[in-house]
Write a structure and sequence with these properties.
Blueprint: H1 10-35, E1 37-39, E2 45-47, H2 51-57, H3 60-89, H4 97-110, H5 113-123, H6 130-137, H7 148-176, H8 180-189, H9 193-204, H10 206-221, H11 225-230, H12 242-252, H13 256-287
Antiparallel strand pairs: 1-2
Helix pairs in contact: 1-13, 2-13, 3-7, 3-10, 4-7, 7-10, 10-13, 12-13
């Protein structure tokens, strides 16, 4: 008996495909088109080939911005992941404290990015900001507008305050999924607190930690709004990350070709590094 196939189900998928094509594929193809052409205005384009890519990869400005991005992302991961694990381990697992802690942890995530930048822009000011006023009152010369080191510290603390909650909630979800039988067996064996964490809690959090690391790396590597609002990429170019440099090229200088080439290279870097993170962590998990 010959099988018959019902293809009407494709009509249910068609709206999704059209939405993806409209929101992702078509804009991407537009960027690719701009990256290989040049224009002098009046919507007249000239073929440029790989000229913009060659110019970008030879630009020290691009490489300096990428190094800033990488340094920032690795600092963020080095702070937020251990801090998130520590907070999740010390959160209550039962009682009225659970919903209170979860709500408090979720509050920073509900604040829009531009509002977070505005909060810390005011918070760090020397004249009206609590942080700037009291830090200077301690005898520390703090001014994130003029000092690159202070600007970096401010942006890092701001990101830690804003996004550590995401790591906490993911780790907490992994911890509460551990059956009580594991803890009872560890208690019978006389396992230490470190042994419980090392052999029970950490392995159970491996999957959520992978998600946390990937999300935080991608978000921190593509950060734009918060540092742009707080420092504008300054002082000088000390906090000019790739995203800020890209916007300056595209909107400030209106160089569409170089901006399109930079956005494609930027996208490929994020994709490649995320794949490396995912491969290394999953292979490590499989070996264990």
């Amino acid at each position: 008996m010959e099988k018959t196939w019902n293809n009407r189900a494709w009509f249910l998928v068609l709206p999704v495909l059209l939405l993806v094509a409209f929101s992702a594929v078509i804009p991407l193809m537009t960027v690719v088109n701009y990256s290989v052409q040049d224009t002098f205005g009046n919507n007249v384009f000239f073929w440029a080939g790989t000229e913009w890519f060659e110019e970008l990869l030879a630009s020290s400005r691009f490489w300096r911005a990428m190094i800033r991005n990488l340094v920032f992302s690795f600092i963020i991961l080095a702070i937020e992941v251990p801090l998130g694990i520590f907070i999740a381990l010390n959160m209550p697992k039962k009682g009225w404290g659970v919903p209170v802690c979860l709500v408090l942890m979720a509050l920073p995530l509900l604040i829009p990015w531009n509002v977070v930048g505005t909060i810390w822009q005011v918070f760090g000011r020397n004249d009206i900001g609590l942080l700037g006023y009291y830090v200077n009152a301690l005898g520390i010369d703090y001014n994130y507008v003029q000092d690159p080191y202070d600007a970096w510290v401010t942006v890092i603390i701001m990101d830690v305050w804003h996004w550590t909650s995401l790591v906490v909630l993911l780790c907490y979800a992994g911890l509460v999924s551990i059956p009580d039988a594991f803890y009872q067996a560890a208690k019978i064996d006389g396992a230490s607190r470190w042994a419980v964490f090392r052999y029970i809690q950490l392995p159970k959090m491996n999957r959520v930690l992978l998600i946390a690391v990937l999300l935080r790396f991608m978000d921190s590597f593509m950060i734009y709004t918060e540092p742009f609002v707080v420092t504008g990429g300054g002082p000088g170019n000390s906090t000019t990350f790739l995203s800020i440099d890209l916007v300056k090229t595209a909107l400030g200088q209106f160089d569409l070709g170089p901006a399109a080439a930079m956005s494609l290279v930027y996208f490929l870097i994020v994709l490649l590094l995320s794949w490396v993170f995912y491969t290394v962590m999953t292979n490590y998990d499989a070996e264990r």
